[in-house]
Amino acid sequence: MGINDRDYGRTERTPWDRIENPRSMVITLIVINVIVFAAQSLFVYSPQSDSPVGMDTPQGEIAVVSTGEKRSHIDDIFAVRGTSLTRPWLWFQTVTYGFLHNRSNILHLVFNMFLLYVFGRPLEQRIGGQEFLKAYLAAILVGGVVAMVSPWLLRMFVPGVSVDVATLGASGGVMAMMVMFACYYPHQELLLMLVLPVKAWVLVSFLVLMDLLGAAGMSGSDTAYGVHLAGALFGFLYVRKGWSFQWLDLTQLDEIPARLRQRSRRAKLKLHDPEKKIREEEREADRILAKIHSSGESSLTAGERRTLEKYSRRKRQSRDL
């Protein structure tokens, strides 16, 4: 492979020009959300009485509305509520709520997945699929914790606030990805409403400002602005503090099906591929070098620097041999 065949040897025009692989973690997340949406619409029932459910609106907000005549078993099980705080066995809802959407309005799903695709693909190309997944899930988790805890805090100042309001929607994670994009590519022009060109940092700053005003009570709506702001803060700190989730290894999850098949067949031989780790290290080194080319060495995280040093040391040792 020549240097011109690598990403960091090409001329870069926009963050999207460098995307080559159509199969990505972003696409996987979108497919999962669509499947969950279908399950939400399939497993429904008629309740005795309606109860409010928090959800993302087509504008990307998490609002409190009524589900109407029918409710979904999926929403009841996986949406996060304030009451979950006192039930530790339900804390998984702080992640699963981010994969649920308003089944009565398909535009809610379409809008969130569109934003995830537009802003997520360049981010995945920049930081890698595994790191993108970890950051996205972490942002969802932070928003879920805020959604679970905030009703109890509000109840201390506003008597009568319900802690049994369910929240669902991907806006916390999507907002984090948008802020990360604006931090990495602040001057990238985006077409607002497909017509008006606007800088990424201007658009995202405006959305965060609207959430701040809403959180201050100036909107008059029941939108859970805290979830938006939690995601935005996480995305900002992730970039500015150089956070990395490389210590959290999710690659072993890919081996679970093979291990289960191996156990079911009671296989006695275990295949060993000594070159696998080297190939993975080379792919990671290529990604880091591409990042240096596009954003400079100062953009590297501490974990990426260690990985590059380890790779360089191994290369020197192989030449000495």
Task: Provide a descriptive summary of the structure in words.
The chain folds into 2 domains: 11-240, Rhomboid-like fold, CATH 1.20.1540; 251-320, no CATH class. It has 321 residues and is mainly α. The chain starts with 24 loop residues before the first helix and ends with a helix. Helices cover 55% and strands 7% of the residues. It has helices spanning 25-42, 73-78, 93-96, 106-127, 129-157, 171-184, 200-215, 225-240, 256-264, 274-295, 302-320, and strands spanning 44-45, 52-56, 62-66, 71-72, 166-167, 189-192, 196-199. The strands form 3 sheets. Strands 3-2-5 form a 3-stranded mixed sheet. Strand 6 and strand 7 form a beta hairpin.
Question: Given the structure, what is the number of helices?
Answer: 11
CATH superfamily of the largest domain: Rhomboid-like
Characterize the main sheet: 3 strands, mixed
Number of DSSP-assigned strands: 7
Give the tally of structural domains.
2
Distance between the termini: 23 Å
Radius of gyration: 22 Å
Strand order of the largest sheet: 3-2-5
Mean pLDDT: 79
Multimerization status: single chain
Order of helices and strands: HEEEEHHHHEHEEHHHHH
Name the beta content range.
5-15%
Annotated CATH architecture of the largest domain: Up-down Bundle
In which range does the helix fraction lie?
40-55%
